[in-house]
Amino acid sequence: MDGLDAMETVRAADGIIHDVGAAWMLDPATPERGKRAGYDNPFAFYFAGRGGVLGDVDAGVVSAAMGWFPAPVVRLFWDEGVAVAGAREAARRYAATCVEWGRDHIGDAGGERLCELAGRVVDAAEGSGLPLFCGWRAEPLADDVPGRTAQLVHVLREWRGALHLVATTAAGLAPLEAVLAGSNEDRARFLGWRGDLPDCSALKGRRAEAEETTDRLAAAVYERALSPAERAEFAELVRAVGAAALG
């Protein structure tokens, strides 16, 4: 098997990891499972569930860790969600939906080997400045391969997202500026931003700089966690998971 360098691994795997991680959170079955777990509002389940690994904190802490959402939106749904059963229990219930989704959609794609390689990447990542990633990394993993694969993909997605938040901040971009400079207005509206939105087209260079920084930070971890052959294997197994989960 030919090897991949670390940056080739970023380009081959990280987009798929993002899309698979998004798929379980956006799947209609996830809020349905949340409703059965006590969360009538799917947004409350999302914010309390995803942010619950941070513990019993003020909504401002969650907003800072998630980054892309308007702070009032985070506060509204975080407070509603944690009122159901607390922050850590919300995270546990949210993780359970991830495990169930993996069993439904991933099966044995990737297998034990992907779990091993992904786990090494997760363990090799430096956690400084990445609280949401660290919170999810500390959560227990399912015993079965499909559930564990889904969880590890989610943790890797949180890792990439946290790196990107650090990189956009370092580039001098506020969260809304980063969103608008990188995509169209629809993305900002999807994330909850309302009212008149600023023209951030002049910031596209900073956004590109942040993307390059994110890639570089991620590549450094792939470099130390996996050999070239293992990186190629990891990318191939991630593609298999993407094919199974995304169709």
Question: Can I get a quick summary?
Answer:
By secondary structure, this protein is mostly helical. It has helices spanning 6-26, 29-36, 42-51, 59-66, 71-85, 87-105, 111-124, 131-137, 145-170, 175-182, 185-190, 204-225, 228-246.
What tags apply to this protein structure?
247 residues, 13 helices, 74% helix, HTH_67
Describe this structure in words.
With 247 residues, the protein is mainly α. The protein has one domain (6-27, 91-246). Helix content is 74%, strand content 0%. The chain is built from 13 helices and no strands. Helix 4 packs across helix 5 (71-85). The longest helix is centred in the middle third of the chain and has 26 residues, at 145-170. The two termini are 25 Å apart.
Beta strands, count: 0
The percentage of residues in β strands lies in under 5%
> Which ranges are low-confidence, i.e. pLDDT below 50, for 5 or more consecutive residues?
none
Q: How would a crystallographer describe the biggest sheet? A: none
Number of helices: 13
- How many individual domains? 1
Helix/strand/pairing category: mainly alpha
Helix content: over 70%
InterPro entries: HTH_67
Pfam families: HTH_67 (PF21863)
Organism: Actinomadura montaniterrae
Protein name: EvbL
SSE order and pairing:
Elements: H1 6-26, H2 29-36, H3 42-51, H4 59-66, H5 71-85, H6 87-105, H7 111-124, H8 131-137, H9 145-170, H10 175-182, H11 185-190, H12 204-225, H13 228-246
